[in-house]
Amino acid sequence: MGNGMCSRKQKRIFQTLLLLTVVFGVLYGAMLYYELQNQLRKAEAVALKYQQHQEALSAQLQVVYEHRSRLEKSLQKERLEHKKAKEDFLVYKLEAQETLNKGRVINNNSQHEELKKQHSDLEEEHRKQGDDFSRTFSDHKQRYLQLQQEKEQELSKLKGISK
């Protein structure tokens, strides 16, 4: 022992300790590997869940954009119809005024009475068309407000979903 050599008993104890250290090291490494694999699977599951959620939100957003586009096209179409109805009303009004002016020039009683009747009929038709125009305008305005409100509700729903 004086020359640095260990006895057999000490070698065995040393080998046993070394073997136990290696065995515990391997067991610890296996447990650590198993735990890391579990955490990796959990992280992949969470990532997949978030990816699916993101895809669902993207799909919903695409639907909203398409719906918004349709609403804007519909609104533009209604505005054009409203403009056309207004122009038609103005043309009719000018024609009625022209007919009235012609009636004032004519001195013949029968023609004058006929023109009065036509004028009365035209005024009644003018009033009805004015009422129709007012109703159409009101309907268009109400539809526009409804479409605007639907768009805002959908946008707020989407904002609520994305949060």
TrEMBL record:
Q: Which domain of life is it from?
A: Eukaryota
Give start-end positions of Basic and acidic residues composition bias. Answer: 111-140
One GO cellular component term, please give it. Golgi membrane
Q: Where is this region: Disordered?
A: 109-140
Q: Which InterPro entries match?
A: GOLIM4 (IPR042336)
- Protein name in the entry: Golgi integral membrane protein 4
Its source organism is Sarcophilus harrisii (Tasmanian devil)
* Lineage, top ranks: Eukaryota, Metazoa, Chordata, Craniata, Vertebrata
